[in-house]
């Protein structure tokens, strides 16, 4: 292998390296939250957010997508979001009902995907537009809460509005995924039975 092609191959791994960085940042962020070191935790969440945007842009711009990246990227996002929601909920900074909804949604989706995978066909993750909006809203709520904890001025109405927005989006996206994948499973079952 030439040096040039070896360097090109190494550059192709940059999005995966950035995704791995996000995975590595999750435990320190959660520990810092528990230790009430909110400013540093917020800084690391911002670094994670920048790395997420950058790895996605690099993968799309240069065609550096990979199967492992397609698995690790949403996993890193999910671990960061669920981890921060659970931690902030346990610390009393997010309502328990919202944390339960966020976690329950992900458990139902993952369980449904596993059932679909083993009973019908390989699951190709396809986040809907509404699901992407949900992820952005969840991240915004985490950032707002952490900015407030770090001493930043956050109007109560902003945080309360985001709490209810995230709650509504969690319910809507869960219903949307159940509906979409139930229809697909039903169609495949009908095709298999010859009807």
Fold and architecture overview:
- The protein is mostly helical.
- It has a single domain (3-193), classed as CDP-alcohol phosphotransferase transmembrane (TM) domain (Four Helix Bundle (Hemerythrin (Met), subunit A)), CATH 1.20.120.
- Helices cover 84% and strands 0% of the residues.
- The protein contains 7 helices and no strands.
- The protein has helices at residues 3-12, 14-34, 38-62, 67-90, 96-119, 129-149, 156-193.
- α2 (14-34) packs antiparallel against α3 (38-62), α3 packs antiparallel against α6 (129-149) and α6 (129-149) runs antiparallel to α7 (156-193).
- The longest helix is centred in the last third of the chain and has 38 residues, at 156-193.
- The radius of gyration is 19 Å and the shape is globular.
Radius of gyration: 19 Å
Q: Which of globular, elongated, flat, extended, rod-shaped describes the shape?
A: globular
- Low-confidence stretches are none
Number of domains: 1
What would the average pLDDT be, to the nearest integer?
Answer: 88
Written as H for each helix and E for each strand, in order along the chain, the element string is HHHHHHH
Number of helices: 7
* CATH H-tier superfamily: CDP-alcohol phosphotransferase transmembrane (TM) domain
Tell me the name of the CATH class. Mainly Alpha
Sheet-strand content, in percent, reads under 5%
What profile does the largest beta sheet have?
none
Q: N-to-C terminal Cα separation, in Å?
A: 54 Å
